[in-house]
């Protein structure tokens, strides 16, 4: 597939997701980085979003719960260019009923070339990146060219 670019604005659209066993770790991480996060637009799956908003006071757009379709909602937002980074504290040692949705979310993030953190260490690297607060061009699939070639 051909490639094109998409401009990520200076103020990023950041998705925050955590499996149940990892919610306390994500909350601790968000509290530690609250000053940086509040300069961006935050999204989260339902349970995680409500917990983070209540505990931190941050304004977070909460989707529905991950197992109820929230992971798929985030995937749709990523494919529409409405999410710039995905912070997903997932539990690789504990299978969840919606594992196919989790895999699809991580796959779509890779397809659309957005930065993904799946644990505390990678999340720390992303939040400390000098690119976080800058306008950034990323390479993405040129879906319009793909469609044009099919007609």
UniProtKB/TrEMBL annotation:
SUPFAM superfamilies: Methylglyoxal synthase-like (SSF52335)
Origin superkingdom: Bacteria
UniProt GO MF annotations: methylglyoxal synthase activity
Keywords in alphabetical order: Lyase
Active site positions: 71 (proton donor/acceptor)
Ranges for domain MGS-like: 6-151
The keyword tRNA-binding is assigned to this record: no
Enzyme's top EC category: lyase
Family annotation (InterPro entries): Methylgl_synth (IPR004363), Methylglyoxal_synth_AS (IPR018148), MGS-like_dom (IPR011607), MGS-like_dom_sf (IPR036914)
UniProt xrefs under Pfam families: MGS (PF02142)
Keyword Lyase: yes
Reaction catalysed by this enzyme: dihydroxyacetone phosphate = methylglyoxal + phosphate
Documented EC number(s): 4.2.3.3
Positions of substrate binding: 19, 23, 45-48, 65-66, 98
CDD domains given in the database record: MGS
PANTHER family: METHYLGLYOXAL SYNTHASE
Matches recorded under NCBIfam families: MGSA (TIGR00160), PRK05234.1 (NF003559)
Function of the protein: Catalyzes the formation of methylglyoxal from dihydroxyacetone phosphate.
Family classification: Belongs to the methylglyoxal synthase family.
HAMAP family per UniProt: Methylglyoxal_synth
Name of the protein: Methylglyoxal synthase
Lineage: Bacteria, Pseudomonadati, Pseudomonadota, Gammaproteobacteria, Vibrionales
